[in-house]
Amino acid sequence: MKNGKTLAEKIWNNHVVFQEKLGPAILYIDGHILHEVTTPQAFAALREKRLKVRRPDKTIATCDHNVPTDNQTLIKDPLSKLQVETLVRNCRDFGITLYGLDSPYQGIVHVMAPELGFIQPGMTIVCGDSHTSTHGAFGALAFGIGTTEVEQVLATQCILAKPMKSMEVNVEGIISKGVTAKDVMLAVLAKIGISGGTGFFIEYTGSLIRNLNIEQRMTICNMSTEGGARAGLIAPDKITFDYLRNRKFVPNGKKFEEKVKEWKKLKTDKGAKYSKSVNLDGNKIEPLVTWGTDPASGIKMNEMVPDPKNERDESRRKAKKRALNYMQIKPGRKMESLPIDYILIGSCTNGRLSDLRDAAQIIKGRKVNSKVTAWVVPGSRRVKMLAEKEGLDRIFKEAGFEWRWSGCSACIAMNNDKIPYGKYCLSTSNRNYEGRQGPGVRTFLASPLTAAASAIEGRITDPRIYL
Amino acid sequence: MKALAKIISRVIVVEAENVDTDQIIPARFLKTTSKDSLGKYLFYNWKNKDTGIVQNKGAAILLARNNFGCGSSREHAVWALMDYGFRVIISSGFGDIFYNNCLKNGLLCIKLKESEIKELFGIIKKNPNTFIKINLESQTVAIVDNKKIFYFEIDPFRKSYLIMGVDELGYILAHEDKITAYEKNI
Fold first, then answer.
1. Nearest residue in B to A152, CA atom
2. Is A348 a known ligand-binding residue?
3. Is residue A2 part of a domain?
4. Around Cβ B180, how many Cβ atoms within 10 Å?
5. Does the structure's ipTM exceed the value 0.90?
6. Number of folded domains in chain B?
7. Which of A382, A315, A340 is nearest to A106 (CA)?
8. Fewest C-beta in 10 Å: which of A8, A199, A329, B140?
9. What pLDDT score was predicted for residue A1?
10. According to the model, what pLDDT value does residue B46 have?
């Protein structure tokens, strides 16, 4: 087919309201998700300009970044409390549905919105959060925006933008035992680097991707932003449609079947050209863990911490030196020999039910190492409720994990969940930047399986010894 | 949005590559409901460490290495940079969301070739007092006291809005009838 289009191009074109020659497109937004951190200034601007929210029915809100996960009835930090209360007031004043601390749907934006069925194939979705790329797992075009754009979407349900180029990341093969979607994504990032996706919408294709369930697909799309891409997406299929059936925002009965017919058309045309293509052999992907302070630094557990001396490029050598200095680890040491102090299982990357099930299968009947503080922070209240229904909370608690309430927790360190200065945390979250989990905190990124095995051993551990 | 057409200033350089917005302003300082007074938190975790920042207090131009502003979407990073006094950032690459956020606030991001960035770093290292002249109209970066000029690309729509200092929201609102028509067809 000549002039074939990619999935991202199709969704983009369907949402262009108006575009002048050489100008940006006024792009219509189907779903807008709000949280307490990146919205107060947007609402303040609306008040100042005497503007209303154009489509409160296409907008939902929750609080996640600031909320405590030990006792959610008491926010001790006055600034956090004010931010959460400001969101409550803004939603009330502007008629927006808030799934707040009194709602069974409260949770991390990127966990709770899909649970509600708020994200559907072919939609454009935005949120003042870079991990909005998560929602591409449904075949939606979903990307993070700044607060000025939050204001624009609230006022007009549109943003002003030019399209990104399309990039394909193709992963063929069968995922091996002990390897998870997180490892696949760490492998993708190690291949493309942290700016390999800059300027692109990434579409993930290939047999390995197709065989992932929707939660695993969310893990993949979630970390697209770690590769610099604005969005990551996967064409919708039966797995997507089955997940969506009977969810709150999804139409029922005949209307649902009609929707499915439309959704089935959402795929990249055979003749379409991607501006960039990357291939990975999925059969060869093994469990990975990051050694440095960027998410593309994933290596195998039996590999050694790299030596900057072997890096020819001067600025990369400097960056590696700086990372090693921050991490306080020595080149030549095997990753699996490195001790850890904290374990975090949770976040918008790996805080869903299947992630907790993964970790629980290793934890069951075992004990957390006495030197380790280990937390499970379910991504949403619904995840927490479902996990408790199948007894996962007991498995974790009996092993010595703390079983907590839902929120962003120590992924971002702006709430009460703080890891002390200088400690090592193996985390299932998405960013290992300097200071991300708190000043001086050193982060290793890995999968929930690796987190579980490492919690038991008290050092970085390949989960396959327990499977 | 603050208008911007021409600026002459000394330069502050940041040596590190891939500076993410968590470095520009750590998350614990995002607990604010206003855009003001965030400059004091700029690069907060870097203080008293060897960061490679050449200080030129009061300079309005920041010279950075590749992929500046990657990571989190926090617009607080832009507000902190502007509150500190920056109006222009020069680099060979920017995080996509950060780039957008900057231009929507009147903080000009200039993208030059990697070789040109290297050259600029060399010039500033040699003489930290070098003045640089930015002209948005002619899309040039000129070294004062030296005939060297670099040209940069910028989207014409954004260029005109930056020069006028006009908020883009007005443009979208002016086309409200088209949004209404679009909504009728959903």
1. B169
2. yes
3. no
4. 11
5. yes
6. 1
7. A382
8. B140
9. 47
10. 86
